[in-house]
Design brief:
Shape: elongated
Number of strands: 0
Radius of gyration: 35 Å
Structural class: mainly alpha
Oligomer: single chain
Number of helices: 24
Order of helices and strands: HHHHHHHHHHHHHHHHHHHHHHHH
Helix content: over 70%
Length: 383
């Protein structure tokens, strides 16, 4: 649209240069040259040419002059100045409706949403033919908090441009904000069934529903998207988190296992979820695939603790020292507890003496009490 207007101006000015003998060549050249420079993307030079135009020249074509000034200012990001020149072109007699669309775009960037709507309506049939302008108008109504008008605008646009599925995407976001989740899901489904939705767009649909608390609807959509993108770890992981939200740990663990195959960076999470799902063997298997030795050992200790494999924790003592993980008081407490559980009280006490955390100190006191019971009376021992 913008290129068409510039070309129209250029051709018109070239004709004037050849036929209008009443104007001086110097004045006509500045405007014509500015149009050519603008067409070729030389914005600053076009502005310089326009600045040299003598506004006192008789029969100066103010329509073309102010229109070009508006286009140049818009290109330079001077939106308020651009609209000023476009309005001066209109006052001077500019009949080209596309000028109103430039004003609308500038006004939107200036966050002048009412003015944007007014400019769109002034463009008349030209605006009505462009899907992007309907979307812009709906967004202006939305930002003005005129939600009914925004939804009405999109409904009209969907009826007029039934193959423009981006309207469904836009309306989905509005419906979610208004907590009209069933309608939002319907729009998301239409979009996903007909448009070539990117993985990012699909994830945004699911995340919006999850954020709104509509977990079941988010799961239904995520299951569908997971089939569309079978190799996407991001979709699989998001679906897993949705099942965690539902408390379905085993399903989530299986999905994280799948995600770790799709992308190895999820191996740690897969092992952790297997631990939470009480899948001891699988948890250790996934843990063995972790490349970060320190992270692997830390997680392994957690797995051993959960499944009561205290002997393996004791055997890991030297590895914990080498990796300096033992400096983590939670790890040191786990080691002390493991020594206590296997009956090596002296080693347990050595580790307990190193604890300084108030919370762990209380737990250490309980272990000491239990160890003393074991020493005093085997029948009261609580290993």
């Amino acid at each position: 649209m913008k290129k068409f207007l510039i070309i129209l101006l250029t051709l018109s000015l070239t004709f004037v240069m050849a036929s209008d003998k009443r104007k001086t060549s110097d004045e006509i050249d500045h405007i014509a040259l500015a149009a050519l420079l603008l067409k070729d993307g030389h914005i600053d030079r076009a502005r310089e040419e326009l600045n040299q135009v003598n506004l006192e020249t008789k029969d100066l074509d103010l329509i073309k002059y102010y229109t070009l000034k508006g286009l140049v200012a818009s290109k330079q990001g001077l939106y308020a100045e651009s609209n000023k020149f476009f309005n001066m072109a209109i006052v001077s007699g500019q009949q080209e409706k596309s000028v109103y669309l430039y004003i609308a775009q500038n006004s939107f960037k200036l966050k002048e949403y009412k003015q944007t709507i007014d400019a769109i309506e002034s463009a008349g049939a030209l605006a009505d033919k462009k899907a992007s302008i309907h979307a812009l108008k709906a967004e202006c109504f939305w930002r003005l908090k005129e939600y009914d008008s925004a939804l009405k605008t999109l409904k009209i646009a969907i009826g007029k441009f039934n193959k423009e599925y981006s309207f469904h995407k836009q309306r989905f976001n509005y419906y979610v904000t208004l907590k009209l989740y069933q309608s939002a899901l319907e729009d998301a489904t239409v979009y996903l069934n007909n448009a070539k939705a990117s993985e990012k767009t699909s994830l945004s649909f699911i995340s919006a529903l999850r954020k709104s608390g509509e977990t079941d609807k988010a799961i239904r959509l995520a299951e569908k998207v997971n089939l569309q993108y079978p190799e996407s770890a991001s979709v699989t992981v998001l679906l897993a988190h949705l099942y965690i939200d539902k408390g379905m740990i085993q399903v989530a663990a299986d999905l994280f296992d799948e995600a770790s195959i799709e992308d190895v960076k999820y191996t740690t999470e897969a092992a952790e979820m297997m631990r939470r799902a009480s899948e001891f063997v699988t948890a250790l298997y996934k843990n063995s695939q972790i490349l970060d030795a320190k992270a692997k050992l830390r997680q392994r200790i957690a797995i051993y603790i959960q499944y009561g494999d205290y002997e393996r924790i004791v055997v890991s003592h030297k590895a914990l020292k080498r990796s300096k993980l033992i400096e983590d008081e939670n790890i040191r407490y786990a080691l002390a507890y493991a020594y206590y559980k296997v009956g090596e009280f002296e080693e347990s006490e050595k580790q307990l003496k190193e604890l300084t955390s108030a919370e762990l100190f209380q737990k250490a006191t309980q272990i000491r009490n239990n160890m003393q019971k074991c020493i005093n009376n085997h029948w009261e021992c609580e290993l």
